[in-house]
Amino acid sequence: MIRVLVVDDSALVRKLFGSVLAEEPDLEVRFARNGVEALAQLDDYRPHVITLDVQMPEMDGLECLDRIMLQRPCPVVMVSTLTAQGAEATLNALQLGAVDFVAKPSGAVSLRIDEFAPTLTSKIRAAAVARVPASRRLRERVQFRTGNRPLPRPRRTTTEGPGPPAQRAEGDGIVLVGTSTGGPPALEALLVPLPATFPWPIVVAQHMPAGFTGPLANRLDGICALQVVEAATPLPLEAGKVYIGRGDADLVLSKRASGMVVMAMPQKPDYPWHPSTDRLVRSAMALMPASQLVGVLMTGMGNDGAAAMTELRASGGATIAEAEETAVVWGMPGELARAGGASYVLPLHRIAQRLQSLVPAHAAGT
Questions:
Q1: How many domains does the chain have?
Q2: What's 238's domain CATH number?
Q3: 101 found inside a domain
Q4: In terms of residue numbers, what domain contains 199?
Q5: Could you list the active site residues?
Q6: Residues 90, 174: one domain?
Q7: Pair (236, 103) in one structural domain
Q8: pLDDT digits 0-9 by tens, 167-224
Q9: Which of 13, 59, 173, 335 is 20 to 30 A from 107, alpha carbon to alpha carbon?
């Protein structure tokens, strides 16, 4: 039984969430009206998952999340409004340790609860098995609780996939990245170490609603040497740029007279997650030799990207899967690794280095 603590100052939202979760036989639910009440229940109820409203009186969601990560860390799913302010607060929450978020239905919540319910329950179940990202304070707290003894080393799952290792590419190419739950901090860890001279464009399919991918691109652009933009309209692919797919759409590559472009496309029912990593990778393989493509699949629930990246590796491309030891949810990269489609299975902090070793230092034409 998964114990869920729903924290929201709205009585209507608590009632609606409660009605949805009560229908699930594997979920048990309690409620808190604000952050103060939530903290008071942590040690007594010991929830497996907390859904936490971003905006609340007395103690807002970010302050409450910060305290949870110190008092009794557990997976937290933020509940955010589809506004610029809500998106920014949600991205801050993911940096503080929340494993995922769900956007509140807009308008009359009660009229859209049937549409919203599957998303809420699937994210709660995924969070229940998620790895809570470690923080410096959390590590210090564990050391204190164990009498300052050194922490055991994490289990290593770093491997190279079966068969010969991927060879360094030559000339122009593209890096294709897929990620979902836990993705924004993982993208930061991947992109920040890369220099402004990185010679290939990087195209990212991050599962997110449309109102969040723009703020995510802006945030990454402010901390990365590479330029990061949201691909909401057709854009030419250029070295030294990172393209984040617009949420609630798919992201594909296309060839025009002027060269290669990346563009948002309406969702295809064949692909259940959006922006779809599988569709992105296949669109690239249709236009370029696999040897000129590198795929990176990081944390996320489900299996999006695993099939297409397995095809990519079989055709001569290089692929990297994030290792279980660092992934918030080892769903997508785990499926790639189990299918034998990963040239390398690496912890998050080693992926940028491996990427630079696979991509030529000076691409043709730069």
A1: 2
A2: 3.40.50.180
A3: yes
A4: 159-358
A5: 180, 207, 304
A6: no
A7: no
A8: 555 568 999 999 999 999 999 999 999 999 999 999 999 999 999 999 999 999 999 9
A9: 59
175 and 305: one domain?
yes
User: What's the half-sphere exposure (Cβ side, CA atoms, 13 Å) at 145?
Assistant: 10
For tokens 């901090």, the residue is: 185
Tell me: the pLDDT tens digits for 158-174? 555 555 555 555 568 99
CATH number of the domain bearing residue 52: 3.40.50.2300
Quickly state the pLDDT bin for 364 (edges 50, 70, 90). Answer: very low
- In order, the DSSP letters of 209-277 are -HHHHHHHHHHHHHH-SSEEEEESS-EE--TTEEEEEPTTSEEEEEEETTEEEEEEE---TT--SSS-H
156 has a pLDDT exceeding 80: no
Q: Is 302 left (phi over 0), alpha (psi -120 to 50) or beta?
A: left
Tokens (6 digits) for 8 = 């929201």
Residue with tokens 């609780």: 145
305 by Cβ neighbours in 10 Å (0-12 / 13-18 / 19+) ranks as buried
Task: State both tokens at 122.
Answer: 């699937």
Q: Which two tokens stand for residue 168?
A: 């360094």
- 150 pLDDT band (50/70/90 cuts)? very low
